[in-house]
Amino acid sequence: MTTAIPATTPPGSAPSPGVRRITLDAAGLTLSALLAEPAYGAPRAGVVALHGGGMSAGYFDGRARPGQSLLALGARLGYTVLALDRPGYGASAHALPEGQRLAEQSDSLHAALDDFARRHDTGAGLLLLAHSYGGKLALTAAADDARRGPHDSGRGLLGLDVSGLGHRYAVAARELPDEHGHGHWTRNWGKLRLYPPGTFRDSGALVAPMPAREREEAARWPETFASLAARIRVPVRLTFAEYEAWWRHDDDTLAALREQLAGAPRVVVDRLPGAGHNISLGWAARSYHLRALGFLEECLAQRECAPAGR
Asked: CATH for 21-304?
């Protein structure tokens, strides 16, 4: 069920104008989210934004500079944008103190999107736009989507746009996030100059504890990715920030990544200059969001010009 949430959050954490807080029913689990819809007319498509580990849905509603919010930008350009607090965050944190593993999160995400699509127009379908750990969920959900077959809910998956995620770590296992924190600060953020003034003052409202089950799965991601990648059947776009430090993104590594995604009809790898790991909170946020929405338009055009029956 989709319901409004009263504004009871700490000062400075109120969403952008036109963005509201809702909850979704994920097969009995309540998930919170931020929602922005076009002011006029039906949406061209829907964007579902999935945040990374130790963050929240507010990651996609940055307000340190005008035009930074994905939610506000997407709605202005004619899309419905839903930024979800992943299971173990937001409204579900109390019910899931240790979070969920990726397979469980995928089930919860599919159930929540079914609930959302019953109550909101999603246009021609959905793009999963995900950051870091949220990208792991997006890839898992897309692989599960291919296995489950077409949906009757009107929320067909158009593609994946993932930033801050690769398939080979650039750090040793001992350097991954643990119970003491989210990992090395400079890997999460990069250089201070990459972010507008006020970003770190406001980020306190966005940061959340990383659930234990997410941390436990992190070291196994290279093997998990290999098991998922061959099942992806939608276009995929991957963006690596210029100063990305968690993941290897040299040419040989990216060639190997593309090979594993051989079942996807299209794989695009982009590099974003002047950006650190947390792209959507930096100076480069608007540039990235416009590129991601441009990719969505390409997915829509590809679907419209496909031969009948495909």
From this structure: 3.40.50.1820
